[in-house]
Amino acid sequence: MKSILTNIRLDTKAANNCIKENKSLIGFDFYTDIPEYSVEKSDGDYIIVFKDASMNMPVGTYTVDDGIIDKIILKQDEKKVEATIKLSMESDSDIKVSNGVPAKIDFYVDRTPLKKILSGKKIALNPVHKKTTKSPTNLLPQVPMNDIAKKVSELLNSLNAKPHIIESNYSDSIAINDDVKYDIAISFATEASLKDESGFKIYYDEQNNKSKRLAEILNKAVERKSPLNNLGIHAKKYSDEPFEIPIVTIVPAIENSRLDDAHLRDIDYRSKIALAVFNGILEYFKSNSSSPILN
């Protein structure tokens, strides 16, 4: 009798305990018995072949996008199920098998290779505080902004980066500490809209080309995670003198939109945004290491 694959577990939020332990987890659930399987490596990706197995779920591509695993591609024929795990960079793996109902195969991918990109990077994280709010439910903006910044900081710390959360700042124009030479600076803020908008947007320093590049990368990273509309990137002047480092402001939702307000209250949404920001930071430094961006 064929084993039946009934579910794939993809936990791609920043609060995932595996991610905090520098592991990415892909879980395969089978109806009763775990089939015979093999694991191969091809061009840095993993291919798991489950023999004498079928699927009670759709074939196709499942997006993970957690910094190390890009996606999973599931295929099936009469005799086997094939899962291709596409990685952003080569890494080791481990497997844990649990019998029961369902029977589980947990496939772990080591995240520590990401340290090669992030180790030692100094990143200022600025959750902007506001004395008033236009939230329809009176949600103080600093509550979700602090939570997102904290989650981003935890992800960066786990990979030997050096994030610093700026406390109680009432402006997204960060007062950079002369004693610390940051590599990038990211503010988190909400804003009210007069256009009945709903969505996320990102501002960049109009006097710094690196800032625009960082905003472009972060915008694409957030778009992959957020169900809200992409309101684009926008230039602004942060100060009379241009910052030497790239500085951006991420607005993960519109403050006076009921839909956006509900998302800001959602812990899972904050966690998705935090992982998206982490992914954007990772991609920015990765692109710089291969092709430096000149200001």
UniProtKB/TrEMBL annotation:
<dbReference type="GO" id="GO:0008745">
    <property type="term" value="F:N-acetylmuramoyl-L-alanine amidase activity"/>
</dbReference>
<dbReference type="Pfam" id="PF01520">
    <property type="entry name" value="Amidase_3"/>
</dbReference>
<protein>
    <submittedName>
        <fullName>Cell wall hydrolase/autolysin</fullName>
    </submittedName>
</protein>
<keyword id="KW-0378">Hydrolase</keyword>
<dbReference type="InterPro" id="IPR002508">
    <property type="entry name" value="MurNAc-LAA_cat"/>
</dbReference>
<feature type="domain" description="MurNAc-LAA">
    <location>
        <begin position="147"/>
        <end position="282"/>
    </location>
</feature>
<dbReference type="GO" id="GO:0009253">
    <property type="term" value="P:peptidoglycan catabolic process"/>
</dbReference>
